[in-house]
Amino acid sequence: AQSGSLAAPGDCPALAAYEKHFRGILIEDEKVGEEDPQTLLTAGNLGCVLQAQGRLDEAEPLLRRALWGFGAKRGLHHPDTLVSTNNLASLLYAQDKFEDAEPLFRSVLSMTNLANLLSATGRRAEAE
Questions:
Q1: Rounded to the nearest 5°, which phi and psi values hold at 66?
Q2: 43-72 pLDDT, tens per residue?
Q3: Domain range list for the chain
Q4: Which among 115, 87, 92 is positioned nearest to 102, based on CA atoms?
Q5: Fewer CB under 10 Å: which end of the chain, C or N?
Q6: PANTHER family from the xrefs (predicted)?
Q7: Short-list 102, 44, 32, 97, CA closest to 69
Q8: How far is Cα 64 from Cα 2, in angstroms, rounded to an integer?
Q9: Rounded CA gap, 15 and 52, in Å?
Q10: DSSP string, 46-99
Q11: Which residues are within 8 A (CB) of 91 and not within 5 positions of it... i.e. 6 or more apart?
Q12: Which 3 state secondary structure label does DSSP give 114?
């Protein structure tokens, strides 16, 4: 990119460094287990980096893996599952897969609103 111009998302050196970082961690994490929460977190982080680079087709299986894994391990209402749901919904939206993204966005919004209500009414443990 020329001086003073904006680089395309995929050209960002910081994103390339993050991608390399998360790919290395993912290799190590997978030795512990593909369904280990740390492995799922790393897969989701790598998916987000790939999405930021505009590599949506590469990001999708990683974000789905994180969502399915957290949903199975921690339940549908756990914060990690909700973040993963939102991340996948954002990716699907970016891919113009609006019908697939909408129910995911609705689910996250509903659960976030409920958690905020429970927390505000002193039922923080129930909100988590």
A1: -60, -45
A2: 999 999 999 999 999 999 999 999 999 999
A3: 10-127
A4: 92
A5: N
A6: AAA+ ATPASE DOMAIN-CONTAINING PROTEIN-RELATED, ATP/GTP-BINDING PROTEIN-RELATED
A7: 44
A8: 36
A9: 8
A10: HHHHHHHTT-HHHHHHHHHHHHHHHHHHH-TTSHHHHHHHHHHHHHHHHTT-HH
A11: 47, 51, 56, 59, 60, 63
A12: helix
Predicted TM-score (pTM) above 0.85 = no
**Residue keyed to tokens 């919904």:** 89
Assigned token pair, 68? 């399915």
Residue corresponding to tokens 């999405």:
51
Q: Was domain 10-127 assigned CATH 3.30.1330.80?
A: no
The identity of residue 64, as a single letter, is R
Residue that has been written with the tokens 């939102």 in this structure: 86
Put residue 122 in one of left, alpha, beta given phi > 0 → left and psi -120 to 50 → alpha: left
